[in-house]
Design brief:
single chain; mainly alpha; 2 helices; rod-shaped
Length: about 60
């Protein structure tokens, strides 16, 4: 009877380890993402607005001729 108890106890411990160890050995979660870098839009946007204004003035002058 004692031998059967020890075999049952050993099987229970092994089964418990089979179900518990994968949870303990799981990978760490990835680190949080970094803040996105902000791109300055003042230089390019200003040049684009100036080019658009110059093109509009040219079109208006050509229309008057």
């Amino acid at each position: 009877m004692k031998k059967a108890f020890y075999i049952l106890l050993a099987l229970t411990v092994v089964a418990g380890l089979i179900f518990i160890l994968p949870d303990l050995a799981s990978a760490q979660p990835p680190p949080p993402p970094n803040k996105p870098t902000q791109a300055p839009i003042d230089g390019g946007l200003g040049l684009l607005a100036a080019a658009g204004g110059a093109y509009a003035i040219k079109k208006l002058r050509d229309k008057k001729k």
